[in-house]
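Pipeline run #58 for the internal structure catalog. This entry was flagged by the ingest filter as a single-chain record with no existing model, so it goes straight to prediction. Upstream metadata was stripped on purpose; only the residue string is passed forward. Reviewer on rotation: M.T. Logging verbosity set to normal.
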Amino acid sequence: MNCEVPQLVLSVNGAEHILPNTPGRRLSEVLREDLGLRGTKVGCDAGDCGACTVLLDGAPVCACLTPAAQVAGRAVTTVEATDDTLLERLRTAFLRHGAAQCGICTPGMLMAARAFLNASEAPSRAEAEEALGGVLCRCTGYAKIIDAVCDAGATPPTAMPAAGMAVGARIERLDGAAKVAGTERFGADTAPEGALLVRAIRAPSAPARFTFGEIEAWCATLPGAVHVFTAADIPGENCFGTIPPFADQPALAEEHARLRGEAVALIAGAPEVIEALDLATFPIRWEEIERDLIHDHRPDNLLITGKVRRGDADAALARSAVVAEGEMRTPYIEHAYIEPEAGIAWMDGDTLVIEACTQAPVMDRDDTAKVLGLPHARVRIIPATAGGGFGSKLDLSLQPLIGLVALKTGRPARMIYSRAESMASTTKRHPSVMQARIGADADGRITGMRFEGEFNTGAYASWGPTVSGRVPVHASGPYYTPHYDAEAHARHTHSAISGAFRGFGVPQAAIMQETLYDELAGKLGLDRLAFRQINALQSGQETVCGQIVQGVGISACLDALEASWHTALKRAELANAKGGRLRHGVGLASCWYGCGNTALPNPSTIRVGITPQGQLCLHQGATDIGQGSNTVITQICADALGLAVADFTLIGPDTGITPDCGKTSASRQTYVTGKAAELAGQSLRARILSQSNMGPDAALRLDGTQLIVSDGSGERRIDLAMLEPDTHGYALAAEETYDPPTIPLDADGQGSPYAVYGYGAHIAEVSVDMTLGTVKVTKITAAHDLGRVINPLLAEGQVEGGIAQGLGLALMEEFIPGRTENLHDYLIPTTGDMPEIETILLEVPDPEGPMGAKGLGEHVLIPTAPAILNAIRHASGGLVRQLPALPHRVLAAIREAQ
């Protein structure tokens, strides 16, 4: 008998590989697992996201849909190709234009662009958008990707600025080279020899009770050894949560599942055994149950209520010249990052090490240690590069699961969520039902407001307390409102968990308030922009929390939009004069957003040091999920210290070696960690100047082991090699912590919840098909006050990416558990959906921020959806009150208005 294994001969990046020809194996699996070419990313395994795009004989294909056997004898090119001049030009262009943010879609984009440019040397933007339409990006808004593709000439990389010139410079992303080369290590990219592969058994529906059958007997029928773990195997407290007093989520459900997709058991074994398993054969019996209370200790399923009260809102509304009132409903919104959750755990002596995608390494460490019954010192979290996060990767997902397997078996344990289980089991934006009444006097000044919102927090608490706290603080918008009464209730259901998603409930509240402000302006006969200018919060005024704020930039944003506003209105008027079924409209909305935790401690710690060998190291523990903290915080520290960005070696987040910089959320990193970086840089500079006896304006320069300090009168040399290193190995070092000054809110929500706020306003221009109800956004003009623009290139990318997510919220996105758990049925904007975006960056310095800087990441999503809704109403007369504004809802709104 001939027992020879059939062979598969592949030509990849010009090299020949001979592999076993396993029937049914995907090209993506062969490239990543057999050849170790993990630059090719897998985001869906269904051809929906395009992250796995490679070239096959020069043509782009989805490697996840391509059987490896069909590739024999053909040329495969991946992002790792090193001898491709056009690909190298594209890499340089992507860095120059800031086209790679988190980087998970970048390999697919590069390969699609490589094929396109091979056939089109001078492409138009429209052609480039069409060519890249099959690759999804959740971070960038596509604008800078298209810029890069249309400008992939032989332009050299951008030069690094000199010492003292970093802040304000368009520095390329410091971690960008690995992203465009395909060598960046994401959660699914580490697979040590002998690692066990882990899969979860998940609830098909909820609420449901379950019982296990004969697990040992089932294991005995399998072709290889497997390990099965249930809640009974968890050695610690089987409960975690992002806010400890509200912790309520088990790592593995114990008796019944509260949501579809909840993990109840783990199966681990050799990859070839686990991949061949039919998990439907696992011995478990499900029984649907009726359960009114999701958690017995929370009556009426109420998690928490957030309140802010100031003055007498009802009396103010009663004496108002005009009042606008209404209701708004928003759905679950899926984060839809292109990287599903993934990670690896292993034992290093008696320390459990976990490398996984996360936004909060210290929180992960603490909760994982709690679940596994370990002291914090025996758990080390090393964040892998996160392929997008937007809030959902703040919560634990697989960390305690792979940690349990590694702890129990002593072997590395690797887990990669499928797209379906990622979407079923992880957090979403809170669905909401909101009502509000706002009044104004005859002069157009806001007199009072009443707001109430119900926010579906799903099966577990997650960030529900934060959302219910933030919404009442922000629901007035950035406008002076003397009388105010707002409540937000976070309530449980047996459905998807609602957590943090870029704005923590503020985008929902903005939809409510900003549509009512348009209505008030109309009743008063005022221009909608002018109405907002009249009421814009000013420095020295009190917010609805009674906080006196400084550095308020909303007026600057509104004023910066004035010319664009009148131009857009004229453009719509001229277009509408032509008649036809397309009607054109212009909408406006504003935002404000408090940076950091709401009235809670929020510290970050930065360490910067110079080794005896002359290496300048920045321990920067803020996880960069694409927003650019690796670059921005280095720029701040560089200018504070007085050395060049190019001198720095970045030591990223790792709970074993880097101080805690807090979670990446709430637009806090540029402000809070940036402030710590500024203080650390200043502290180290002061120590150097003191040691060299030089004045405050002295220049610093590193030359090998020599630190040279000079001014107009001469120079001093510090021989670093002669200095005794500290416990961290540094000859000279500084470590500083910054915690924003806030005041806790009282029972009426009065206090100072945030030390720094950011501000912005957007104009949306749309066309509405009055027959079909379809909406096309043609342009967004966005003005944002950053206090100090640390890096304009990265800031523009944040604005464009936030607008894309706001557009999805307004027009197309709705997560329905069990129905839209893939990127085919759950729609996010593609290259063809994006409008022209004009970004205006403003600087109204904040007295508390580093060099005057404020946060940006959350803010940019907030005004987009309400601006679009206001533009739809301007065009058609109809206000859509339930999102997304799908055609049937637009038509219904038009009919109601008529």
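catalog note: The first helix runs from residue 27 to 34.
catalog note: The two ends are 81 Å apart (CA to CA).
status: ready for reviewer M.T.
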